[in-house]
Design brief:
98 residues, alpha+beta, 5-stranded antiparallel beta sheet, 5 strands, 18% helix
Amino acid sequence: MKALLLTALAVATSGAALAEPKTRTYTYDGPNRTGSHVVTRDTETRTTTRDTDVFRKSDGTQLYARDATVTRVGGQVTRSVDVTRQQGFRPRARIGRR
């Protein structure tokens, strides 16, 4: 009986924890550039948002901005991506994609 009660309590509390959006922030601080990458996942609405910004250290100019949203509803996937970058700037390739 105790095991059943504990299992029901664990299921009830885990559902509340899953409903909250989860955010991860990654930062980059190199010799010439600084940047951040923020990933937010909302399991309730089935939406993932990724925002990336890169700035030049010397004058604070924004070199690169990428905002992407992916939404899944009823088996359909909708993607939206906006990219802005300074002329001549190329973001680093991810490992394994070179």
